[in-house]
Amino acid sequence: MIERLRPFVPVLDWGRSYTRAALSNDLIAALIVTIMLIPQSLAYALLAGLPPEAGIYASIVPIVLYAIFGTSRSLAVGPVAVVSLMTAATIGQIAEQGTAGYAVAALTLAFLSGGFLLLMGILRLGFLANFLSHPVIAGFITASGILIATSQLKHILGVSAHGHTLPEMLGSLLSHLPELNIITLTLGILATGFLFWVRKSLKPFLRGLGTPPVLADFLTKAGPVAAVIATTVAVWSMDLTGQGVKIVGAVPQSLPPLTLPSFSVDLFRALVVPAILISIIGFVESVSVAQTLAAKKRQRIDPDQELIGLGAANLGAAFTGGYPVTGGFARSVVNFDAGAETPAAGAFTAVGLAIAAVALTPLVYYLPKATLAATIIVAVLSLVDLSILKKTWDYSRADFTAVAVTILLTLGLGIEAGVASGVVISVLLHLYKTSRPHVAEVGLVPGTQHFRNVLRHDVETNPAVVTLRVDESLYFVNARFLEDMVQQRVTEGCTLRHVILLFSAVNEVDFSALESLEAINRRLTDMGVGLHLSEVKGPVMDRLNRTDFPKKLNGQVFLSQYGAWTELTAHC
Amino acid sequence: MIERLRPFVPVLDWGRSYTRAALSNDLIAALIVTIMLIPQSLAYALLAGLPPEAGIYASIVPIVLYAIFGTSRSLAVGPVAVVSLMTAATIGQIAEQGTAGYAVAALTLAFLSGGFLLLMGILRLGFLANFLSHPVIAGFITASGILIATSQLKHILGVSAHGHTLPEMLGSLLSHLPELNIITLTLGILATGFLFWVRKSLKPFLRGLGTPPVLADFLTKAGPVAAVIATTVAVWSMDLTGQGVKIVGAVPQSLPPLTLPSFSVDLFRALVVPAILISIIGFVESVSVAQTLAAKKRQRIDPDQELIGLGAANLGAAFTGGYPVTGGFARSVVNFDAGAETPAAGAFTAVGLAIAAVALTPLVYYLPKATLAATIIVAVLSLVDLSILKKTWDYSRADFTAVAVTILLTLGLGIEAGVASGVVISVLLHLYKTSRPHVAEVGLVPGTQHFRNVLRHDVETNPAVVTLRVDESLYFVNARFLEDMVQQRVTEGCTLRHVILLFSAVNEVDFSALESLEAINRRLTDMGVGLHLSEVKGPVMDRLNRTDFPKKLNGQVFLSQYGAWTELTAHC
């Protein structure tokens, strides 16, 4: 029984060979991650428009379920910035923040998202994530970072503002600027400045003082906790709430509660498209992180099993007071750097967070929201990397267009429109590129059996035998182009007796292209010109052999271009 | 001035060299086409839900405008079955048939469609038509033929029925069956049977009687006119209208009137998407026909100029009481077979139809609608060709899926959903196929410099040097696949020292794939394995040279695979 489950439950695999050394490494990693996660979880819940405890709850059961079903040994699952913002954008249109309806909608979103991921995993559709190209993902992450940081400015300024796009947010901030709270702003700027300093300069500074590297590392990661403690104490001791500083307030002291998502059909209908988008974004982010980390240790990630692991994590979140979760970049890297060896590190982190949920929550009563906003801003601004624009511009205009459109639309229309249009643009650009394939006329490189472009290399040619190398698979988008191309070349030379189509770069001939080849063959036959194919790949030839095209072909199919050339030029 | 216009107004080209022989051929073709078009135009107007004269008006001015701006010498432009049905489906949701609003909406649809085609032509977007694959078009035409024939059954049965999908139509017909009119049914069956017989057996029959071929041909084409005359006389002489036989009724005796489309924003908004779909379908049908006919005479069609010609024709229809038009298959083939040499044949046809519109319209008062329905049924059933299912099934499952989905969705959800999903399915299947590319390990064919798949051919290999031939362009959809693929192959053999990626079939390396190549290079470097590329095409190498990848590459880029092989195996 257990043997049959093994492929679907990776824990059965690594759990058997769990050693004491691995246990001790996992425990240390869990301690570090727990300390980092407490402020981050509170902050992301704030970003999602949920009560702070939702962020902690969303980190406990999901992390355990992922440890059981996921394949990455370093991935840390929980609330992440982008998904939190998408959650807020989605639910903000359905319910008012702070109401019970809002929280239930968040659970339902996690439920739908989990169900969708699980379904994709069972159907083994993990490859679909590849449809998001690297440049689109990079552009999307950068634009999201800008959006998220902007969304947090209101907490730093101490004003109320809203909006889901950059123009909306900036407009709303400007119009609320008169409500500016100076004390909140001071706290916010100090916290942000401190956190930036910790991230950038604390480690070299401590090393300069002679601190051992491990301790320096630990202290750097505890930076946000220090900011939390310092600002909480400041608010409490100086009674700054009376001055209008907004605080986290009462957080229930409890383990994750058992909750139920709503099963209302209307709510499902309203949430299903956002749930799919959130799932896809979350999955892509998670798999990218997991693959990056796995590559460093020569481990492998199974994208389909990842879908199952993340699906289970989201279902867990739906039933324990959380909201949509995924594998986060920052927390996973910290987990990896801290030496986590197995998913058990995640389970220990969950235990740490459960203790925090029960014991530490009263301590964050006076924690100012500005500090949490500072935590988010510092975290997401490290994701902003506009150099992708320059890199893709240098490399290819098509990739640049995809990035630029994704960034502009994400900022201008919001996160969902941005990523959807990024995918569509990438696919359209690819189709456009393949619709007008490069076709090179080739000749023999003297002294070899190798054929190259006549325009780029000094090669032997023969006016009676033309070889066209088609640099693209032939399918419906470009089938007609080839017809025109051959037609044009053939009408140019009147001494022409043979056309060889060099198929070394043709990886597919679909039914539309087969019809085009038949048309070309008919026309050349009418003109008394021979049509030959050379270097047709096995899979392509197999398929052509199922039709009567090889019989209709007025010339031959040659194994090698050199063979074709020597035989056909021998008579000319 | 005229010289500058020439590329955009093909008439300036062929008009100069117009000969008397061409004139006489064009006149004969025009006479034959006119006789065929009179009943057909009335019938398609009926199909579109418009008064019969709209069909004739839509054939006059558009045909002349196409003659001026189009590039095909044989294409006959006017109402066609599929576009007529799409018009009915679109406008039926906006206005009641028979109202003035309905007719104005049809003009507006033609106006928007003409504007869209013209815009596409000016932007030179004719290549977009290639996104409809041959199998999708074939499936769509077949399903449309079935839908159209079914939609005409109500006229044959003499009942009222409605619906835009096959289940709706059949359900509606069944529920109205009690209203069956026996006399209408008798007329309808006789007309349909006669027309099928004419189409299939009249010509051999006449030839058997010793009729000269030209006359036999002419009589066959006049078959529908004979059916029209016979049934009209029958209804008139026996006063069958009193028995409930529905007739065409009064048709105004007039040249095409000057009409104006509506410029209401609401109407534009409601019609713009259908107008785009109608334009695309019409354009694809028209270009397919034009290309087929042009190929027979070694002429060329310019798709971008075709857009301009069809755009002008539709604008003409919008201002002269017509509705959306395009190049029709049946009428164009007849025109071609009848010997039309230039677009002037179309202009003469227009004159013939104008005479008919003024002089002959009173004669069709008693023409039963059942006869027109029979004309349509016989015409469209010749478009139904289910053999495409078998052909694509034998050739490739992907093409088959595209056809089958297109047919089922067109029948089940209607024409617009059918064709839209056909396009989407084709694109997705293509992306899916390229997402898991064929990668072959190749070896040297003994005695040559040619490399083939080790699994298919008896070739020389070397355990220290592995050559992988990547049979697909590398782009975001499959970038990660290559990483996994190389990783897997490399971990298999421990004596491995060099990996050569044979790039003869790689036509593009996009930014995502470049990042994957960099990742592969890093990993192989870590493992002490050399990474080499061979036979990289010019355009691909140009692009790689703009990055620092060639410098980072731990091995070399070889011009030929044979060169790579000899150099790398020399040391092993």
Distance between the termini of chain A: 72 Å
Largest sheet of chain A: 6 strands, mixed
**CA-based gyration radius of chain A:** 30 Å
- Would you tell me the structural class of the helices and strands of chain A? mainly alpha
Q: Biggest interface pair, residues each?
A: A-B, 71 and 71 residues
Write down the oligomeric state: homodimer
Number of helices of chain A: 24
The residue fraction in helices of chain A comes out at 55-70%
Morphology call of chain A: elongated
Give a count of the beta strands of chain A, DSSP E runs of length 2 or more: 8
Mean pLDDT of chain A: 86
Indicate the low-confidence ranges of chain A by residue numbers: none
Domain STAS (chains A, B): 455-549
InterPro entries (chains A, B): SLC26A/SulP_dom (IPR011547), SLC26A/SulP_fam (IPR001902), STAS_dom (IPR002645), STAS_dom_sf (IPR036513)
Membrane topology (chains A, B): Multi-pass membrane protein
Keywords (chains A, B): Membrane, Transmembrane, Transmembrane helix
